[in-house]
Amino acid sequence: MAIVRFKGFGEVDVTVGTSLLEAATRAHFPEGSACGGVCACSTCHVHVLKGASLLSEQEDEEADILDKAFDVRATSRLGCQSKIVADGELEIEITRESLEAYENEHPAERGKYTK
Asked: Among the residues of the chain, which ranges form H helices?
């Protein structure tokens, strides 16, 4: 099992093979996913603050999509493409871009995370 802490939202226990987007969705945390998690947008953009070595390697397609994202850092990943490959603890920060996308996808939540 892996523990994924989403900064400011809480944590969730997940099994190896789970993506960060799946973990956020399971815990009802506000990570965007406009394309449904098929690596066609950057709305699930997160910053990995701890535990990056527990994630799958970034592939070229993910890097290309991240080029379209805002506030890209060395720790940036797409939640839909980042699969947990080992047990341990991760700390994830959902980007403002992702929070805004989530609010757009869930109109009842507008302004709740990005005031």
From this structure: 20-26, 60-66, 96-105
CATH topology of domain 2-109: Ubiquitin-like (UB roll) (3.10.20)
Strand ranges (DSSP E) for 37-99? Answer: 45-50, 76-78, 88-94
Domain locations along the chain = 2-109
pLDDT digits (tens, 9 = 90+) for 19-70: 999 999 999 999 999 999 999 999 999 999 999 999 999 999 999 999 999 9
- Please report, in angstroms and rounded to a whole number, the separation of the first and last CA atoms in the chain: 34
- Cα–Cα distance measured from residue 50 to residue 75, given in angstroms and rounded to the nearest whole number: 9
